[in-house]
Design goal:
Helix content is 38%, strand content 17%. The chain is built from 7 helices and 9 strands. The chain starts with a strand and ends with a helix.
Length: 198
Amino acid sequence: MKYYFGSKKDDTFAVYEKEGKYYPIFIEKYGNEAVQCEWLKEIIDEETILALNKYMQPYEEGKPKIYMAGPLFNEGDRYSNKLISDRLRAEGYTTFLPQEVVISDKSSALVKAACYYMDFKAIDQAFALVANCNGIDIDSGTAAEIGLGYAWHKKLVLYKSDVRNYYNSMYKLNNFVSGLVNNKVCHDIEEVLAELRK
């Protein structure tokens, strides 16, 4: 599929062509109706195409979809997220792992928008959200994803293998976040899988 910049004034307005018509990529912002474009420029850089492809299809078809929430700002976090995701994939699920599309301070506004909107789309399409809650405190982005998953009635499975206790001896998470999952926090991947099968 080819993608095009569709505006000289809006650097996040991109479109794709289907049956002779142009449609906005980010339906969350621009809707899903065909649009008239007075100016088109094909998008050719690899980073942007990768991000747009992932936005267009965040999951494999035909498998139960799981959104993987968690911190992704250091090697340990990303490694832990990948271990959980790989195990879920081996069990027959398809996962959306945000760290598979990386943005940096050099990424374009379009790539950053793609990452933002693909997270919304992937949570919306998932039946469950598995959240890696390891760390001194829950990652702010992870907390936002959990809140959105709760509001959209997704099955929430929280994972925390960190044995340190910061808030209380029973829940080991922020009280409000724990409340969203009836204070159920899994301590290993086997517990996560058991919760998903319920």
